[in-house]
Structures are given as structure tokens and as C-alpha cells.
Design goal:
alpha+beta, about 725 residues, six-stranded antiparallel beta sheet, Calcium-transporting ATPase, cytoplasmic transduction domain A, Calcium-transporting ATPase, cytoplasmic domain N, about 20% strand, seven-stranded mixed beta sheet, Alpha-Beta Plaits
Length: about 725
């Protein structure tokens, strides 16, 4: 019998600022035997893979990544990074003061002290200082001494870059910006352009710093979510509160939440009455009233009076933690556009290198042109070849969109979902709990065989323990009555429930069940029709041989449902309601909301209806995440309603945390804005490359403009993606 020793391992990798950085890490790791399923997430700085440690140890993986100049540490551990070195961990070039030992320390340093505290910042300062010295010598002495000063500045500045290029080439990645940069710098020295070579090295360092700052800004949106939960909590020990780390809270403990405090954990209010601002979690700006028994979320803010909350979830499983986890993991679900660009970039860079070689040698060989001129142009063309801006164009936009969505209560699980949502042409809604409040109330009791009290008692006995909204409404109406025990309970999928009560088999279900059993006389059928035409849902209660009566319930449409459907129509998106309820009730609700409908559908019927509607169209399905699971799975995009519930966060392709139908058009606006942003980024990246490729061949632009074309495009693309962080889905 073969025993597998493969484990799933995860690290945090710092220093990745563009798409090619992630590709370098992936390329360095994939070559190891026993390493498979390698995932590198740029925006969330995550490396995950399956590793058979009988073939390759985790230490070898870490050494390979660290050797490329990136910091790395196992998940939850301080990031190991170079100390006392100018650029790289194991080959100090210019000794400096010790660097921060972990990623968190560097993050704090960057925020408090600025870019100059980072490794790339120190490289920029070093290369800038060398260039300034060379310029000073040129002004004071000129001639050959100045030339050699620029040569020395170039060699010292390019040495760590060349070393990284060599390591990446050994790892099977010869076409990297570091390799192209090294060749261009050394080549410029050989053709006598030492001053320009030194400038190019400095501009490369400047571009690296700008990329790092831009990438840090993009990541900050995701990091800010995690900072919503307070670091400490006031746990009740006897009658006295004691302050402990919120991460150490255990399920069942009671915490004190004073006015103005953030709730430290998901839990249930057991004492006090207040209003809680849940906008950090759901994006809903209006404080929600909380009384005994109400649920509260970690990160929400207590507004008015002291609350006592019993912890219901551990720190690693609270709502904020799960949202952060979903947003982080969503980066692995890459958009089709991103996958295409990654494939494109694999041959794009070698093609440019080949073109640069032809530009350098063909004119002199064929036309007798001057070698130094065309070698110079070929070297400049090399620097244009790096696809950094193109590769980061999609993940930067997706990361910003996911972060913005999470802040507004819109969870989407990855770029593939964002892209599919942007193409939606039809939105299909479930009725109960989606277009309606999901809190029906009993409006009419129509007893046939017994009195109303007995009708209600028997119905409540059958529904006891059910979580269905109609069942909960019947049980609530029966409160205070003596409910008889029930045995052998069962469910008729999508139609009702039954149980043995007092020796009788009692069924509570759709009118068609009673009709099929021949227990629905004409006069009761007319009464039932009248109730349904009034927009009420009617259930029949009957035994094997007699009808006990009718119970009518009404579930009001959500206040924003009609507005949401109208907004979708304005966006050119059709909408339809699918429901298991009867046709008359569905027609009444549909008329109130202004939506087309299909009624009387069992769960499997919803799937069939959805497949029919999807022909030639992209369909988004909105449901409650439980009863509609089959239909949610069939739709191009399935979204669950629910304020932070397990179902809403873990099922479907996303969730609307605020339980607002109006968030559906908001989510579609965000998705469309994201795809526009991605198209702008791709056009910007390719456009700049194309323009400077032509001007370089014509001799209009040189080496320093070429390096700006690369790093400048990356920075512009990232900054354009950051605009999505300010997008307001509800106001467009």
C-alpha cells in the first residue's frame, strides 16, 4: 500500500510588486520535485502548494524564494528577510542598519517612516547617491575620470540586479526584467554610453520603489478589513470585566461592550439594549437596534448603551475573519482575461527579445549601418520587453474591486465571478427571503373540521423543529397553545411536511396535495382562491381522510425590491422571479414589484426553468443559499442573501451581506466598472509599449525613456486600478 506524504503548505511572501514578481516565485518553486498545485497570489502575498517532503523540504522552498530577493515565512510566522544588506540576503554589497525582521514590522515602518525604510527604498537611495557622485565628478573634473565614475556607479548599482537575474536564469527564467536590465546596462557601457547606463540603473530603482508603493496601496484595502476587529476584549469573570486579547476569546464566554467600543467577537446579546453600527461589516450606514437574543458581528460598533455579548464563534471564524479569508482566497479564482494575459506574456517577452536582437544586428549587417547606434536601439528595445504592466493589469483591478465590494457588503469569490457578473443579462430571483422579507405572518385561519385553535395546534405539532419561514410563522402564531407531541415526522420536498399526531397522520402542505387526495371541496377551493388573489400563501392541513382547514400567510415584499428591479431594467438587464408558491400569490407579489414570474416550481423545476432562461444569456441567480442551492449552482453566477451567515458566506459565488435587493444592481455596476478598468489597463500597458517600441526603433527615444516605459506603465496601471477603491456601487 502506497502512503502519500504530501502536505498543503502556505507562506507569506513579501516584496512582490508586479505580476512578473509572482511569476518568478512560481517559476522558482515549480521546478522542485514533489511540489505541485503552486498558487502565488500577488495582492495577498500568499504562496500555497502541495509538497512531498520526502523529495523536497520546505526549507529548500524558502531558500529558493529568499534567494530571489523576497521575504518569506510560514503562515502566521515573522517573515525572514535580509538584514544588514543593501539588496539581497546573502551577498551584502553596501552594509546598512538592520532591517525589520518581519513583514508586519516593515509594513508599520513604511506607513510611519515612508518608502525609504524598505529594501527597494535603500537601493534607490544608494544608486541615486552613486549617480550624484558621478555627476559631481563630471562637473568638477570631466573627461575620462567622469566616464569611469559613471562606469563604477553603473556596475555597483547593477550588481545586485545582475545577481538576481543570474539566479532566476538558473531557475529556468532567463527572460526577466532583471536580465534585460543587466544586459542593457552592460551593453551601454560597451558602446560608451556610461552616463546613460547609470541613469537607467537609477530609474530602474525608482520604478521599483514606485511599484512597491502602488502595490502597497492596493493591498491596504484588504488589510484594513482585518484591522476592524479590536485587539482586546473585556471578558466577564464573575461580575468584573477583565481585559484579554480578543484572539484568545472562547465560545461561550461573555464580554462587556461599552458605548463606542467595537464588538470583539461574533455573538448573541444576553443583556442590554442598544443600537449597533454594522457598517464596517455590512456597509449598512443606519445603526441596527439590538436587544436580548440579537446577533452581533465582530468589528461592529456599539453606539448607545452597554451590552453583554456571549461569544458564538472563535476569533479565526468570526464574520470579519471569514470575509478576509474569502477575499484573500478569491485571488486564486482568476478571471479568464487574466489567464489569457498570462499565456500571452509567456511568448510576448521572448518575441520582444528576438526583435531587439534583430534590430541590433540586421541594419549593420544588411545595410551597413553604424553598429553602436543599432546596438543602442536594440538595448532600449530590450527594456520595453518586460510585461510587468500587462500582467498586473487584471489582478490589481480585481483586488481593488473585491476590497471595495467587501466594504459595501458585496462579497464576490474571485476574478472569474467578477467577469461573469459583468456579462449578466438576466437576473433570476427566488421569492421568499429574497424579494420578500422572509418573515411571513399568519393572517387567516379557516377551520373546516375542527375549531381554529385545534387547527393551529395540529399544524404547529407537524412543523415543530422546522426552519422553513412558513413553519416558523405557524409556530409563532401557536405560541401559548398546548402543542401535542409528534412522531415519525417527514418532509415532502418543496411541498410540505407530515407527522403522526395523536395516532393520525397529519399533513401541512401545498393545496395541490389536498386536491390530489380529493380533500378540497369546491366551496373551500373558492375560499382558497380568494386568499391567494390577495397575495397570500395558503397551506392546507389534512389527515388521510379529511381536510382540517386552511392557514393563510403573507410575506411582504422588501421595501427596495421594486426599485432594484427598476434599476436593473435601466441597466438593460431583465429580471424574473422563480417561486414554489402558487400562481395567484406569485402574480400579486410580481405586480407589486414589477417583475415577471414563474410559479409552482419545485427545487428541481427551478433548475429546469433556469436552464431554459439561460439559453443565449448570462444568468445571475439570487437565493437564500439553502433551498435554492441547485439553481445557484446551475446559474453563471449564484449569489446568496444573508447578513454574515455561514450559508451566505460559504455557498454560491458570492453573498449580499446587507440582505438588500438594491445591492444586486450595485454589484453589477461594480463588476462592469471593474471590467472597464481592466480594459483601460490593458490598453494603457500595450499602448505605451507600442508607442515606445516604434519611437525606439526610429531613434526618437533611448534607454532612460525605455525603462520609464516599463516601470512607468506598471505604476500607471496600478494607480488606475486603485481608483476602484473609491467606487460607490450604490451611487452610480
Amino acid at each position: 500500500m502506497t502512503t502519500t506524504t504530501e502536505e498543503t503548505l502556505e507562506w507569506r511572501v513579501t516584496g512582490m510588486d508586479c505580476g512578473s514578481c509572482a511569476a518568478k516565485v512560481r517559476g522558482a518553486v515549480e521546478r522542485f520535485p514533489g511540489a505541485s498545485g503552486v498558487e502565488v497570489a500577488l495582492m495577498t502575498e500568499r504562496l500555497r502548494l502541495h509538497l512531498d517532503e520526502t523529495q523536497t523540504s520546505r526549507t529548500e522552498i524558502e531558500s529558493a524564494v529568499r534567494g530571489l530577493g523576497f521575504g518569506i515565512a510560514a503562515k502566521g510566522q515573522p517573515t525572514e528577510r535580509p538584514k544588514g544588506a543593501f539588496v539581497l540576503p546573502d551577498d551584502a554589497i553596501i552594509p546598512l542598519a538592520s532591517a525589520p525582521e518581519d513583514a508586519a514590522a516593515e509594513d508599520a515602518t513604511v506607513e510611519e517612516s515612508g518608502w525609504h525604510q524598505t529594501t527597494k527604498g535603500r537601493m534607490l537611495i544608494g544608486t541615486g547617491g552613486l549617480l550624484a557622485v558621478a555627476w559631481g565628478i563630471e562637473l568638477l573634473a570631466g573627461g575620462g575620470l567622469a566616464h569611469w565614475a559613471f562606469v563604477i556607479a553603473t556596475l555597483l548599482g547593477a550588481a545586485p540586479i545582475a545577481r538576481r537575474a543570474f539566479k532566476m536564469a538558473l531557475a529556468g527564467m532567463p527572460f526577466t526584467i532583471e536580465m534585460l536590465m543587466s544586459i542593457a546596462a552592460v551593453g551601454a557601457l560597451f558602446i560608451g554610453a556610461a552616463g546613460e547606463a547609470a541613469v537607467v540603473v537609477f530609474l530602474f530603482a525608482l520604478g521599483e520603489v514606485l511599484e512597491g508603493v502602488a502595490a502597497g496601496k492596493a493591498r491596504q484595502g484588504i488589510r484594513s478589513l482585518a484591522s476592524l476587529v479590536p485587539k482586546t476584549a473585556r471578558v466577564m469573570v464573575g461580575s468584573q470585566p477583565r481585559e484579554i486579547a480578543a484572539a484568545h476569546l472562547q465560545v461561550g464566554q461573555v464580554v462587556q461592550v461599552r458605548p463606542g467600543d467595537r464588538v470583539p467577537a461574533d455573538g448573541t446579546v444576553i443583556a442590554g439594549r442598544s443600537s449597533v453600527d454594522e457598517s464596517p461589516v455590512t456597509g449598512e450606514s443606519v445603526p441596527a437596534p439590538k436587544d436580548i437574543g440579537a446577533e452581533v458581528f465582530a468589528g461592529s460598533i456599539n453606539a448607545e448603551a452597554e451590552l453583554r455579548v456571549r461569544v458564538s464563534r472563535a476569533a479565526e471564524d468570526n464574520t470579519i475573519a471569514r470575509i478576509v479569508r474569502l477575499v484573500e482566497e478569491a485571488e486564486s479564482a482568476r478571471a479568464p482575461t487574466e489567464r489569457f494575459i498570462e499565456r500571452f506574456s509567456r511568448w510576448y517577452m521572448p518575441a520582444v527579445v528576438g526583435a531587439a536582437l534583430l534590430v541590433a544586428v540586421l541594419p549593420p549587417l544588411v545595410g551597413g549601418a553604424e553598429w553602436s547606434t543599432w546596438i543602442y536601439r536594440g538595448l532600449a528595445l530590450l527594456l520595453i520587453g518586460c510585461p510587468c504592466a500587462l500582467v498586473i493589469s487584471v489582478p490589481a483591478s480585481i483586488a481593488s474591486a473585491l476590497s471595495t465590494g467587501a466594504r459595501h457588503g458585496l462579497l464576490l469569490k474571485g476574478g472569474a465571478v467578477v467577469e461573469a457578473a459583468a456579462q449578466t443579462s438576466l437576473v433570476v430571483f427566488d421569492k421568499t427571503g429574497t424579494l420578500t422579507e422572509g418573515r411571513p405572518q399568519v393572517t387567516d385561519l379557516c377551520a373546516v373540521s375542527d375549531d381554529e385553535s385545534e387547527l393551529l395546534r395540529l399544524a404547529a405539532a407537524v412543523e415543530h423543529g422546522s426552519s422553513h419561514p412558513l413553519a416558523r410563522a405557524i409556530i409563532a402564531r401557536a405560541e401559548g397553545l398546548d402543542i401535542p407531541p409528534a412522531q415519525d415526522a417527514g418532509v415532502l420536498a418543496g411541498q410540505g411536511a407530515f407527522a403522526m399526531v395523536g395516532g393520525l397522520r397529519v399533513t401541512v402542505g401545498a393545496p395541490r396535495l389536498a386536491e390530489a387526495a380529493g380533500l378540497l371541496p369546491p366551496n373551500v377551493a373558492r375560499q382558497l382562491a380568494g386568499l391567494e388573489e390577495a397575495g397570500k400563501t395558503v397551506v392546507t392541513v389534512f389527515t388521510t381522510d379529511r381536510l382540517l382547514g386552511l392557514i393563510a400567510l403573507r410575506d411582504e415584499p422588501r421595501a427596495d425590491a421594486a426599485k432594484a428591479v427598476a434599476s436593473l431594467a435601466e441597466m438593460g438587464i431583465a429580471s424574473t422571479m422563480l417561486t414554489g408558491d402558487n400562481a395567484r400569490t406569485a402574480a400579486a407579489i410580481g405586480a407589486q414589484i414589477g417583475i415577471a414570474h414563474q410559479a409552482g416550481l419545485l427545487p428541481q423545476d427551478k433548475v429546469t426553468a433556469l436552464q431554459a432562461l439561460a439559453k443565449g444569456r448570462r444568468v445571475m441567480m439570487i437565493g437564500d443559499g439553502i433551498n435554492d442551492a441547485p439553481a445557484l449552482a446551475v446559474a453563471d453566477v449564484g449569489l446568496a442573501m444573508g447578513s454574515g451567515t455561514d450559508v451566505a458566506l460559504e455557498t454560491a459565488d458570492g453573498a449580499l451581506l446587507r440582505d438588500r435587493v438594491a445591492d444586486v444592481p450595485g454589484l453589477l455596476r461594480l463588476s462592469r466598472a471593474t471590467m472597464r478598468n481592466i480594459r483601460q489597463n490593458v490598453a494603457l500597458a500595450l499602448g505605451l509599449k507600442g508607442v515606445f517600441l516604434v519611437t525606439t526603433i526610429l531613434g526618437v527615444t533611448g534607454l532612460w525613456v525605455a525603462i520609464l516605459a516599463d516601470t512607468g506603465a506598471t505604476v500607471l496601471v496600478t494607480l488606475n486600478a486603485l481608483r476602484l477603491l473609491g467606487f460607490r456601487p450604490s451611487s452610480h
